[in-house]
Every structure is written in structure tokens, then in C-alpha cells.
Amino acid sequence: MTGTDAFLWEFIGTALLLLLGNGVCALVNLRTSGAKGSDWIVIALGWGLGVFVGASVADPTGGHLNPAVTVMLAVNGDLDWGLVPFYFLGQILGAMLGAFLAWAAFKQLFDANNYDDAGNVTGANKDTGGIFFTSPAHPHNGWNAVTEFIATTVLLMFIAFGPAGGELGPLSYFGVAFVVVAVGLSLGTPTGYAINPVRDLGPRLMYAFVLPIKDKGSAQWNYAWVPVVAPLLSAVAVGLLSIAL
User: Fold this and answer.
1) pTM of the entire structure?
2) Which of 19, 82, 132, 216 is most exposed by smallest CB count within 10 Å?
């Protein structure tokens, strides 16, 4: 596999993941959405199915879609370190494109979000950032990093030691998707379960600097390091553990 292949397939797969993942969050939260107010299980299922779709399309590269997966497989020797930058670049740019496409798909609903049916400004739905990036239930970033580390470790342990044994492929994507659903349902609410640095950072950048959404909320940059650093630390830990075992 060449670096160009790694970049291209990870770019496409991650864009699909974020389109569907940010899309389900928009579907549940925007004021004029027919599914507004749907419960947490809808979001968890939407993200899990997004992983399945994106990873299946990106099968030529192993469907990582996540720098934590890439680092874990590089640490344990299953991936050439020379390909890692190409994976990373495809993943972050794909995440940014996916966020843009999710905004485009829901553009009319974003435009109507801060107005009631009579066209009056309400301001009640101003903070749309959570549609694109994660935020914690409580502002204690040390413990939030612990949560993200634990949640990411569940995902990476399945990839490293589960039925796929570190070799992702078409059938194992079903399993990975269900692990993402399980993490969301069981561990998701303290931090929004990024468990993937680009899943959070790419859309956060797009929301803060690119997407033309009226009356944006804060991009919460004081928290942004948690969903980047904690999953990568988990990747190193699980990679080293898989070598030891």
C-alpha cells in the first residue's frame, strides 16, 4: 500500500463517518428536525453505523478512520510508521469534509434553528457546537481525560485482542461498530465519547472557523485537548500491551 492509497481511502472513509455521525446529532438536536428529542440510543446507533459504513468503504487501508487505531497498530508493529502521516492527514481532512457535508445536508434546519415558527428570534437553540464536537458533562478535564482513555481502551482492546486479532477486515467492521455503540451506551455521557482525535478536532475546527452557522456557541478550546491526547495515550498503552502479550 502506498501513502497515496492510505491518504485517499482514510479521507473518504472518515468523511463518511463524520457525515453520518454529525448528521445523527443534527437530526436529534435541531429545532425543526422531525427526530428532534430522540433519545441517546439514536445517537449511539447512528455513530456505530457510521463507523461500519466508513470503515467498510475504507477497507483497502484497514478502515482505521481514527488516529488512535493507527497509532496502536504502528506501536505493535502491524503498520509501517512511514504510512502513519498519510493516515493522519486523510483522517483529519476527511473529518473536516464530513462535518461540512453534515452542515450542508441540514443547512435549512440550521438556518431555522434560532427562530420560532413565526420567524421570531428565540435564542433558545443557539449552541449548536455539540452537533459537531464533544463536550463534557462536568468541567474537570483530568477526570474527563480518564474517561476518554478508558472508553478508547475498550475499543482498541477489541481491535487488538478480539476476533480480528489486530487485522481489521469486512466482517470485523460489524464488531467494531457494535463496540462503538456499546461504548456510547455505557460510557458515553460523561464526555460525549470522542474516542477518536479527528472525530472531535476536525469538526471543531470547521465549526469554529468555516461553517456559516448563525449565532454560534463556543468551540470550547479549553477542553479540545482531552479528546485528542487521551485516545492517543490509550493507543500507545494498548499497542505496548499487545506486544507484551
Assistant:
1) 0.94
2) 82
